[in-house]
Amino acid sequence: MTKYFPIKTDTACQLKWTWSTIHLYTGETSSCHRVNTSKLNETNFAQFHNTDKKIADRKLMLDGKWPTGGCEYCKNIETAGGKSDRQFQLEIPNLVPPELDADLAAVSVTPRIVEVYLDNVCNMSCIYCEDKFSSKIYQENIKHGNYAHNNLEIKNISTKQDNFDQLSAEFWKWMHSNYQTLRRFHVLGGEPFYQSQFETCLEFLESHNNPNLEFNVISNLKISRTRLEQFIHRIKNLLKRRKIARFDLTCSIDCWGDEQEYIRHGIDMEQWQQNFEYVSAQKWITLNINQTITVLGMKTIPSLLQYVNSCRADREIGHYFMACVNRPYLNPAIMGAGYFDKEFEEILKSMPEQSWQQKQVRSLMQGMQAHLSTGQRNDKEIENLFYFLNEIDRRRGLDWKQTFPWLVKEFKNVV
Questions:
Q1: ∠ Cα 244 249 252 (to 5°)
Q2: What are the contacts of 67-76 at 24+ separation with CB within 8 A?
Q3: Are 324 and 280 in contact (CB under 8 A)?
Q4: Which tens digit of pLDDT belongs to each residue from 76-110?
Q5: Report field, pTM of the whole predicted structure over 0.90
Q6: Max Cα distance, the chain (Å)
Q7: d(CA 46, CA 272)
Q8: 43, 44, 42, 40: which is closest to 21 by C-alpha?
Q9: What is the bridge-based pairing of β-strands 264-265 and 125-126?
Q10: Using CA atoms in the order 254, 335, 400, 275, what is the torsion angle rounded to 10 degrees?
Q11: Which residue in 354, 356, 358 sits closest to 320, CA to CA?
Q12: What is the pLDDT confidence band of residue 351, given thresholds at 50, 70 and 90?
């Protein structure tokens, strides 16, 4: 029986009731990638899905009000007439917490989707990322020190919790007791395939059964073919033994070519492409790409989509994305309305519309374009981008002028 999220107020978001993200490295939790986090410790860990903040947000949504602290992302898109992730999530069935069957006003509920960042160990340093997600960035910031210009800062803002091992133990304790209630389980990093903790994860899945579970790994594909094949073989055995219902591999990629190598620093485009074509040939894998959209990557997103389309000849490849929000000077909105109209035209032309998911993602991209069309050029953030890129070049031995020559004229008034 297909069951859709039953709360129908103008602001209700299924993610607030069904989804929890957990950062073991920093001891934090949130209800989606865009909202503020709540702190966790050994005492309150079991309530990660029902923190005071999450319950308060659910109550606001029951009253048709928008929570603050990140929900503005969807609010702004909807105000501009676009389709938001909130609206998209409402169309995904069978993720309803069981408490809502008896009480549509329930605000303390059981999660259906748990997403865990096992650690920050990573082999890349993406330009929009932070130290809590990447050990490479943490090490880079230690080496080069803090940087500050006006309200722009580059520094380590997170530290590994002293009780990291205890939090990790609490997480697997919770999983042992509640695993059967989950419908989706996402594992992120850093880079999961690069982390020793991922072995603990696979061992847990191999020793537990949840034939209704969809298991999703988000990977940068910077991994040797031999090691990747070993992981894929073990996960395929989970399916054969009906330990899980489905395996999703979500491959992180934002744009294409030299621009991508600058943005996702450390990526090897040839290796990424070879690994992607290997996993694409495994038809039993539910395969996706996931983008972080930045002002720097807009001009080569069409090239990325053309490549992905070439891999879609005999299989579906999902597509997910979000605009960079944690570093406002990397958001495409800083250039003002209409600046990327040509790129959006090419992007939308490259987005297929055969499946339900493809139609939804195209609609979400149109929503982003609609939101950007209402904005004004932000010279202050453009100035911040100039200083940020200069500092990144200094730290990494790069040259943004060579990679993004179209940006030079945008900085002519910056001194």
A1: 155
A2: 67/11, 67/16, 67/35, 69/35, 69/36, 70/30, 70/32, 70/34, 70/35, 70/36, 70/325, 71/11, 71/13, 71/34, 71/35, 73/34, 73/323, 73/325, 74/13, 74/34, 75/11, 76/371
A3: no
A4: 999 999 999 999 999 999 999 999 999 999 999 99
A5: yes
A6: 63
A7: 38
A8: 40
A9: antiparallel
A10: 0
A11: 358
A12: very high
**What would the two tokens of residue 144 be?**
């080069």
Rg (CA), the chain: 21
Q: Is the pLDDT reported for residue 325 higher than 90?
A: no
d(C-alpha 138, C-alpha 145), whole Å = 10
SS3 of 24-67: the string is CCCCEEECCCCCCCEECCCCCHHHHHHCHHHHHHHHHHHCCCCC
* Cβ–Cβ < 8 Å for 74, 85: yes
Residue 181 host element (H or E): none
Q: Are 257 and 210 in contact (CB under 8 A)?
A: no
Positive or negative, the Cα torsion across 207, 211, 217, 223? positive
Place of tokens 């519309």: 353
Amino acid at 376: Q
For residue 315, how many C-alpha atoms fall within 13 Å in the half-sphere facing its CB?
15
What is the DSSP-derived secondary structure letter of residue 69?
Answer: S
